[in-house]
Amino acid sequence: MDYLASLDFGRPPAKGFLCEEMGLGKTLEITTLIKLNPRKSLSYNMKYDILDPSRRIKESKTTLILCPETILSQWNEEIRAVCPELSVYVYPGILYMEEKDHSITPTSVGEMLASYDIVLTSYNILSRELDRAIFKPTTRPKRKNNYERIDYSSPLMLLEFYRLVLDEAQLASISISRVGHFSRIIPRVHTWCVSGTIIRKDLQDLHSLMRSLRLYPLDKISSEHWEHIPRPLFDRLFKSICIRHTKEMIGNQVNLPKQTRIMLRSPFSTIEYDNYCDLFSRFLEQVGLNSNGEPIGEGFDYDRSKAGMRVWSSKLRMICCHALLAGDQLRRNMYVDASNSPVLATTSKLKKNHEFIMGTLEDVLKDLILRNELESSTSFLNCIRSRLKLGKINEFLRQPEESVKIFRGLIDEINEKIKEYKNYRRKDDEDTKITWSLRIRNLLECLHQSYFMLASAYYQHYRPMHPLPDNFSDLVDLNNRENDNEDENEKNNNISNTLTAVEQRFHELEVRYYGKADEILNILLEEPLKRTDESILKLEELFGGYEKYQIKEVPKSFEDVEEDDDKRNVTEEVGAGSIELPLICDSIPSYQETFEEYSTSLGITFVLNRAKECIEQLNGQSTIINCWFQTLYEFQRVPVTDDTEKTGNEYSSYLLLQENSQAYIDQLQLILEDREKAINSTEDMLYTNSTNKFQRTFMESGTKTELYHELETLRKAYIPQGTLNPRYSLHTAVLELVGELQGYQAGTLQYSTIDYLVKLLKDCMKGELNKLRTMKTKVFDVVNAVFNAKVAYFKALQSRSDSLTNYFPDKLGDSPKYVALMEIQEISKKIDNEKVKMKNLNNRLNYLKTLSTKREQDSTEFGDDSCVICRFKILVGSLTQCGHKYCRDCLAEWMKTKKTCPMCNKKLKEDELYNFIYSRGGLKGEVIESLHENREEVHRITSHNQNNGIAAEEQHDLERIKLLKNRRLFEKDMDYVYQELPTFELRDISNIPLKRKYGTKVDMIIRQVKYLINKTPGTQILIFSQWNMFLLLLGKALRYEGVEHRSWMDKTISSGKAKKKGENSKLNQDITDFKKDSSISCFLLNTVAQAAGLTFTNASHVFLCEPIVNLSFELQAINRIHRIGQTRETTVWSFIIEGTIEESIAYLSTKKRIQAAKVRKNALSEENNEIEEIDENILEAKELTKVNDSSKKEGEIIADEDLWAAFFAARSAHVVDSVFV
């Protein structure tokens, strides 16, 4: 190395790509390059930058390495380990350095950087420093010598680095990014882009990197012309500037330890399986497919279903990791817990329990029950609302008898359901009580409508409607006449004397149910009415606390006053009495005698005269403010309900009162803004384009009332001159007096006089501004609270009124009757569907309530769930409405002869049964159930069908054959990739005890972690998942089980070490701890966001929590441990849930691996023989050149061509196999 280092070849600047495959030591190559090729000749003179000749730079020996922040410490450690004689400095950024030492300058930092062999910094620092990199310090001579120029340059732009290295260069491949811009302009001699996956999306990424390399003329080509470069020409050029070796190419030059892949599979627990089956059936129903992925109807469009399938794929994959991942409750609780915020922590009562773990099977079951109850109550509410509309339509069709029947049935059902909900509310906790109260309120609204419409239907019995017209024009005229007749009937309330005995009975029923509707309405309005009364009480307490004063004159409206009149002195006399006003805005002392006494010069006299005039105008304005506040108080103190006799005009009167109140509120806000400007303005508002925010709001709000315009005219008449011209404001007077003060020496009489006046006016300003602040906050908050409470009350009242409108058909045809009848048919179908849905939901809810999570603690026991018919344990069963469980086949045979429950003799209906499957089996390490074990069964069924034909009852046997053949294909392909685990090891893993039951996937992972640690103490594991929430949940479970770990999702350093600002980030600190401390067993990382660039040769196991379709992500994760420097055999563990979308994705991923290796091997050997095993080196050479878009931080995006197979590959392996032939 010393000999090679002594040679100076004098070659031109290097510009190229180092794209070695992952694990082949790109860091080692760059370090060796720096050691062997130092800068031979170094000039200390300033020179011009080649890219920007206006910038002066200084040559340096330094190599600048840019990399992601997560691998910054890794670079530092490896360089010091390989070449300890090289001096290395981690550059934290000029902003941090200046904050730490105020005397530091960019020039001094640049000189310091030039003394090191290597400078490391991150892309984040580069991005933050771009603005300073663009800055160019001037060299022009200063006009004055009494100030110092500030240099805002970036130290990285003051040196010509000998070498620039962009590690993980794909992160700088976006041409419009700040990192891409900075990397192009950094002065340097040589440039290297280092990455194993240089392309993230397409060849456009290379265009940006060519610009970073400054590779002429490709760096001058525009983005539009880049795509038109001939591909053969570009390929030849790229090969000349790219260095790439794969593990396949180097052969035995680098020997890595053996790597083993094992798939662990387990079925869902009973609770999780029920949840998954429910969601999967909803997916099939939404996209229109059956369980084998076949369309169930004509017109299925795969392209239109892609978006929905992609959403469902993410949801189902998350459910496979944990049943709560797709819900909002878990996300809220997990993030609140992770934040370590005492404010947030107190929002949950469960925080009091330090052993609380969110995500156990108890939580899953509770969440399923709550969701099912919500759907059931929503379905019931939809059904009720549809029947309400059905009753209105019957009333429209002049069929009051049918309406009465519908509304009476609704009333009984709603009352029964309300009693049921009230019982649930009494039993549940405080959080759930709110939900039940909301459901009861929704039912009360429907009950109010039912009572009201029932009363209306009884009215039609003795005051029948006119016959239904045949066309819509006559219908409109008829409605207008009936509305006029209703107004006349309201005026003549005494109609009972003109009714017959039968009509009198109907009239009494009408009055009775109208009364019941009013009772329900009072209950619904009780809460908004209570809030209104409380706010009015607070308003009375506030205004009652103010001192009162009386005036004999009030300001007058100025609509009829001429422009040249003195508007400020125009008032109207009250008369013999007087008006009492609250002293909210009191007058300012005039200071007349003080001003006259201290007017010692002409300049001071002018200033004091303007201040005096301003004070007089503000005092005139204060009377207006107090009058308006008093009027607003009188408006808002009026209660929304009282015991006076109702005239029918109360609602319109209250609306008018609220409208007038709004006008006073608007103008009060504006007049207070005017007052503040007159006191504190310092710029001429006449010449600014900005207007007051209140004025801007009101100008856009549309038509104003007459009262609003009157108040606005009065406000403008009393507007102080200082509002429009700050020369007349109090603030300007103070500033001018301060200016006068500068001309006198402290201690003189004149100085003391002016100083006294300045303090006097300042105190006056401060006091008035405090009063304004009080009026804007304290007073207006209370007034607005009353106003808003009344608005909420009237909105609630109006919404109830709107729900009672009569039915009127849409003009979709010539006949109103025909339209109404067609709508009855549609609503009836909707009601039937809701009833079926509600019945299924209730059946499932009964089943979920029978499940006991205690049984789930022991996977080998099923408690007392035995079938009384066959006396065996239930595996595939049915639950009756009476709560008894039987084997599904046993109960089906029983019901052929008897339609009653075998235990309680209650009548049974097939549509009221809920079918379920209890989870069976445990952890599996073999690939799949072997078809050879079922050879005799297959032969028997096949022979029977060939001899006797296919009968309907034998369809199940055919499905069994199809499934077994499908499993044969599955097993054959999976054997290429995954090895089996001995049965005794599986038994040992399954028998490891856990403190709690967290869920199938979490339990599998934790047991496997404990097994490996117990088997080999000091074992370290990387755990990858694409779901951040799952990493949070898994981290909490590991911590509770006593497994020491680190996670990139943690908010604080688990080790408790204090980290100074500017040092390595929290993630870097965790990485360092994990590498140095073997007691830290696990490191949790995101598969998509954190699977590149890191080196963890201290770990020997990789856990893939879920299968990945994009093999490049999977290989990136695996190669964190399977790389140069690894001395132990490594194992990759894949965790799969049986019978789910994960099996299909695992099979699809396996087929992709096989196909990739076949294509690569055939290209090299030109042989088409089937491969017996997967060569990982061949696979990596193929897959790692593919697109690797890591811009998405959570969850991979499945390509359109893989969507169908991601759902159904495991059940249709023959279809997928034909695609990859």
TrEMBL record:
Residues 1008-1175 form the Helicase C-terminal domain. GO terms for cellular component: nucleus. SUPFAM superfamilies: P-loop containing nucleoside triphosphate hydrolases (SSF52540), RING/U-box (SSF57850). The keyword Oxidoreductase does not apply. Keywords: ATP-binding, Coiled coil, Helicase, Hydrolase, Metal-binding, Nucleotide-binding, Zinc, Zinc-finger. GO terms for molecular function: ATP binding; helicase activity; hydrolase activity; ubiquitin protein ligase activity; zinc ion binding. Residues 867-905 form the RING-type domain. Residues 478-505, 824-851, 1154-1184 form a coiled coil. InterPro entries: ATP-helicase/E3_Ub-Ligase, C144_05_dom, Helicase_ATP-bd, Helicase_C-like, P-loop_NTPase, SNF2-like_sf, SNF2/RAD54-like_C, SNF2_N. One of its GO terms (biological process) is DNA damage response. SMART domains: DEXDc, RING. It comes from the Eukaryota. Pfam families: Ferritin_C144_05 (PF26021), Helicase_C (PF00271), SNF2-rel_dom (PF00176), zf-RING_2 (PF13639). Residues 7-216 form the Helicase ATP-binding domain. The keyword Ribonucleoprotein does not apply. This is Putative ATP-dependent helicase IRC20.
